[in-house]
Task: structure prediction
Amino acid sequence: MTLFHRLVSRLADALFAVSLLAGVLMMLHVTTDVISRTLFNAPLAGTGEITATYYMIAVAFLPLAWITLRDQHVTADIFVSALPRALRAVIAVLVDLLVIVYVSAFVWQTWISALSRTERGEVWEILGGYLPVWPTRWLLPVAGAAMVLTMVFRLIARLTRYEYDSEGQN
Result:
């Protein structure tokens, strides 16, 4: 179980680091575009499209496993928190199973879409040329698969009472 935990933690940390890098690059890119547009009347071609297809997808989806491992998703548990502990444990297992099924379907569908768009070589037309966007379609199934793997770890940890702290350490 410790090996599985280490694998999930490293994968989650790596994807989170990539998302942070994407966030920093997005800020630098947009700032450079604003300065270039304002001072030199020369905007950078495709800034909006690159931001929407590359940076935003990475920032929004790649941290999912990291957030899942730390149980930091937004929850509304006002009713569940009032239930007896045993019933809360059952509901937690059922929710974990439901999330695994749902996110697995998400991974399957985004995989099919990414494969199709890769085969077509999907591009967006931008000022001065074309922007290949098919590579970013793979971020969704990768992020989703990492989340599924993390949810499976969490479910096994819950069922075996394997303890790890909120920072993902055991």
Remarks:
- Strands lie at 123-126, 129-132.
- The mean pLDDT is 94.
